[in-house]
Amino acid sequence: MEDIVVPLVAIPAFLIGLPWIVFHYITKWKTMATLTTSDEHLLEELHAMARRLDDRMETVERIISADNPDWRPARLTSSDDQDDYGLEQVERLMKERARK
To answer: Does this entry carry the keyword Transmembrane helix (predicted)?
Structure first.
């Protein structure tokens, strides 16, 4: 009797239990890799803050340039494509996500 019970329990446990455990952890792994809505909101807030800080820096640089014409900013100006490349890419991705 015991010779029959062990294979009857072991085979379904191997064929059903093992894939179930593997797929369970695969789905856990995939959900951990995605951004949550709170993460997306935080990124949007950080992007908005970066834009405001950039605008403030431009304002300060304009004021200083008006007071001292020989002064030149030490950082790249926003008119350079190289300066805003990262922010422009983020804005494009945000617009694409908003369309969906």
So the answer is: yes
| Whether 30 and 55 share a structural domain | no
pTM: 0.46
- Among 52, 50, 72, which Cα is nearest to 61's? 72
Domain co-membership, 90 together with 43:
yes
Q: Are the C-beta atoms of 76 and 83 separated by less than 8 Å?
A: yes
- Which among 16, 17, 19, 39 has a CA at the least distance from the CA of 27? 19
Q: Is 42 helix (H, G, I), strand (E, B) or coil?
A: helix
Q: Is the pLDDT of residue 83 over 60?
A: no
| 7-56 pLDDT, tens digit each | 888 898 889 989 999 999 999 888 887 778 888 899 999 999 999 999 99
Nearest to 87 by CA among 39, 41, 55: 55
Q: Which amino acid would we find at residue 81?
A: D
pLDDT(95) > 70: yes
- For tokens 């304002």, the residue is 59
